[in-house]
Design goal:
mainly beta, 5-stranded antiparallel β-sheet, 25 strands
């Protein structure tokens, strides 16, 4: 059963593009076409505006919280070609690091699992993906760029979990992996090899721009799972036992463009949202088939359990 706990008036002056809750569920960050990022205290069901972050000069597309072991860090990316990492001190956020080495809009940011250290992936409309790593010894950031990752542009990036499926656990070394989606209709899997990133897989099923990708947490699961969504109105579930050979299943063809896919923390429920103004939740049954378990009409609080 899905129930609406709280509704928040963000105070943004234009369309809100992303909303993210931090690791402990105490802070909510939102970003908007009004060029701002806002952070709210949401403890005990309340909503108090903590800070209004002004550092971008274009629509802010996406935000991401770091793991709390690195402090309260928030990354934001914008049409202004910049990525800003903000750090919280005493309830106020200040600019901690700014990366401005993309030639076009930066569309997606996501922090890596904490086992890899403080690392941020950024996908841009210039077709490249940047991987920013904090070097503790020097207190500097190192940037590696995957050039020409996607023709026309990269729309989304997502990290593979550091806790790998059982089949991979013989390998002691953690291997960083990323999945990305782009305007070339492709989903690509990347692997770090020494000091560079290589394309491990090119997954070709979508027939239009891939708008979002999400690598599922693998808590006790025996396979890798990725969800992707596209302007072709389809959501595809990719699964692999060995991380090398991927099988695709079309979850559903929706009535409109699908913009976002997101996994629950234990990786067993997928949330899908798109141009039909609905959020649907999907779960795999014992037979391995995906079923819609709930759908919510955005903004109306209307809940239909199926």
């Amino acid at each position: 059963m899905v129930s609406i706990l709280n509704s928040i008036d963000t105070g943004h002056e234009d369309m809100v593009h992303d909303a993210e809750v931090d690791y402990y569920g105490l802070r909510l960050a939102t970003c908007s076409s009004d060029n701002s990022v806002k952070v709210y205290d949401i403890k005990n069901g309340g909503t108090a505006l903590l800070d209004d972050l002004k550092g971008h000069f274009g629509p802010v597309w996406q935000i991401a919280w770091s793991h709390p072991k690195f402090g309260n860090l928030l990354a934001s990316c914008s049409y202004d070609r910049k990525v800003i990492i903000w750090k919280e001190q005493n309830g106020k956020f200040t600019k901690y690091y700014e990366y401005a080495n993309h030639d076009s809009s930066v569309n997606s940011v996501q922090f890596a699992p904490p086992e890899y250290g403080l690392v941020l992936a950024c996908g841009s409309s210039d077709g490249s993906i940047s991987v920013l790593s904090y070097i503790a010894d020097t207190h500097n950031w190192d940037a590696k760029k995957i050039q020409n990752a996607h023709a026309i542009g990269c729309n989304a990036v997502s990290w593979a979990p550091a806790i790998t499926p059982m089949s991979d656990r013989d390998s002691a070394k953690l291997v960083k992996r990323l999945v990305s989606g782009g305007c070339d209709n492709l989903v690509k899997v990347w692997r770090e090899e020494e000091d560079r990133w290589v394309e491990e897989n090119k997954l070709e099923v979508h027939s239009d721009w891939v708008r979002d990708v999400a690598w599922a947490p693998s808590v006790g699961l025996h396979q890798h799972t990725i969800a992707s969504c596209s302007q072709d109105r389809r959501v595809i579930i990719w699964s692999s036992d060995d991380g090398a050979n991927w099988n695709s299943t079309v979850l559903q063809t929706f009535d409109d463009v699908v913009w976002n896919v997101s996994w629950s923390l234990n990786g067993n429920i997928l949330a899908v949202s798109g141009g039909d103004n609905k959020i649907t939740l999907w779960k795999q049954n014992l037979q391995g088939n995906w079923q819609c378990v709930s759908d919510v009409v955005k903004g109306q609080g209307q809940i239909n359990n199926q």
